[in-house]
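Subject: design request, 224 residues
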């Protein structure tokens, strides 16, 4: 990201939203750092690891690589204050995350952009707010174990005007909607995890084409 890019973003976003954006990018950055070390940010938090030292070290690298975003991230706080946010569940626990609309977990070794590819798709699991944390933990853990697809993400407690109701949604991505055996393998794994009710699968290409915005359009490509 160049200084010019930052100026464009700064013009488009209020200061608080820009700070949240910077925090989200820092979280992705620290997650990739942890993956390179064979670990995960949530594991460091849940195990009581030295998050302050980790944030201090990674913040230096982030500020060097994304210098234009450093001032926005400073609005969130120091490395110690950022660590305290993680310990409180921000960016880790869906019901306690209010600075980002989503928490995402990629399968280790998978390109972060793979879930957004046009040929990819996702199973959609809707859960009540009281159940989302436990549901996400199951899917997050199964994702990093390689049992599911290429990644997963969950909606958070941040108020979203696009949400249709109070339920939260978890996406479980597969790399190729046309690979029906793999799509159904993931569905079978989700049943093993306890998600036995019928759920739908959406193709990214239909989402990008706006196929689900018109009344009467079929929402799911697969429904099992």
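Subject: RE: design request

Done. Sequence follows.
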């Amino acid at each position: 990201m160049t200084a010019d890019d930052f100026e464009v973003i700064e013009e488009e976003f209020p200061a608080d939203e820009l700070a949240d954006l910077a925090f989200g990018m820092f979280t992705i950055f620290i997650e990739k750092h942890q993956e390179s070390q064979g670990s995960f940010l949530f594991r460091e938090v849940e195990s009581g690891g030295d998050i302050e030292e980790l944030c201090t070290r990674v913040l230096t690298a982030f500020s060097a690589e994304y210098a234009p975003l450093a001032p926005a991230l400073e609005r969130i706080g120091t490395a110690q204050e950022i660590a305290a946010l993680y310990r409180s569940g921000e960016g880790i626990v869906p019901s306690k995350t209010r600075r980002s609309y989503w928490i995402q977990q990629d399968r280790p070794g998978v390109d972060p952009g793979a879930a957004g590819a046009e040929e990819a798709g996702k199973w959609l699991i809707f859960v009540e707010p009281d159940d989302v944390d436990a549901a996400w933990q199951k899917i997050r853990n199964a994702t990093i174990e390689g049992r599911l697809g290429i990644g997963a993400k969950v909606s958070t407690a941040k108020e979203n005007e696009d949400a249709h109701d109070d339920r939260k949604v978890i996406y479980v991505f597969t790399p190729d909607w046309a690979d029906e055996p793999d799509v159904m393998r993931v569905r079978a794994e989700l049943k093993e995890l306890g998600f036995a009710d019928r759920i739908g699968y959406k193709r990214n290409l239909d989402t990008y084409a706006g196929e689900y915005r018109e009344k009467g359009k079929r929402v799911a490509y697969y429904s099992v």
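The mean pLDDT is 90.
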